């Protein structure tokens, strides 16, 4: 090789160093280097994120040519590797700051790391109670074992590699699994020939591990560990977030289950109380449930909130609970009541109120039950309340109760026609019954939402 060519090579190498400082964009850098290499009849070839520099006339190259080509190739690849790593770190840091989904973040880390550490497969796992649980994995589909990995749990009592990393808190580098005496052979992973396991430490505690597998011996180098190290704090934060997320998710699921169980138990108790009243007064069997259905439909038509609908449903189911304190012979009397008996009947809202107000969880419905026989002109009982003094929920139950009672059989009379019950509500709208409530009832009835 003549001196002129040597100088040309040296100029190119020097120029590459300058270009590395000037270019942020990888494509622009490669284009510029390609133009420089043309001067010595060299070309750039790219394969699997690696650069190869070669000549179209290989037979004309001597040992010095090959040495300079090797130096140029290494320089270009080092720049690209550094640029890829810098981009990777920036992208993942931004993802974490933006509160990206933990699983998506971990998947992105494994995908991006493949550019700087070529691997066959890799995984990120959370350490819980001396066992690894895999949160993210990649590449195992090549050998059809992704389902195995999804359900696989690695216990330190069974795997020397995991035990060693946990005790030393240092990476474990297995160059050749066939030559490693403590390698545990599993049929699904017997293709793994070299392995790299790095602990993810956050606040001096191992949260999990990132592991890399290769299906060829000596697939990794010591410097691969150095490439991953700057990412470990990021991984630590991600795993800590994952643990918090899983903890919150578990607590939420347990709370939902407990609340659902509580709701079922609560409504069973409410239904039981309603059934007890109807057992004492068999002639009104089903009355409270029908009143509850009608009341809820009216409430929805009036646009009540979900919380108010809930209170309306419970209070209408229990609106006659005070009848527990009324003698059965009065409740079941087949003829008209005398004035004393009527006075007994009229205290059932007060009895119901006194029963319910003592039960903290449903004490808010006690005033509704207390007022369901009040009328807007003050002619109702037990307090003779008027207009806005009466709760809207009580006004709704009042209309539903009157309509259901008039259209149902009683021991002292037969069920009245629906037209007569409607006439009662219409004629007394604005006098006994709230106009908005009556209108909402009639609209719902006309549209077929109230089924008798």
Automatic annotation (TrEMBL):
Source organism superkingdom: Bacteria
Classification via Gene3D superfamilies: 3.30.450.40, Hypothetical protein af1432
UniProt domain HD: residue ranges: 284-406
Family matches, as SUPFAM superfamilies: GAF domain-like, HD-domain/PDEase-like
Residue ranges occupied by any HD-GYP domain in the UniProt entry: 262-452
Record InterPro entries: GAF, GAF-like_dom_sf, HD/PDEase_dom, HD_domain, HD_GYP_dom
Record PANTHER family: CYCLIC DI-GMP PHOSPHODIESTERASE PA4108 (PTHR43155:SF2), CYCLIC DI-GMP PHOSPHODIESTERASE PA4108-RELATED (PTHR43155)
Name of this chain's protein: Metal dependent phosphohydrolase
Biological source species: Dictyoglomus turgidum (strain DSM 6724 / Z-1310)
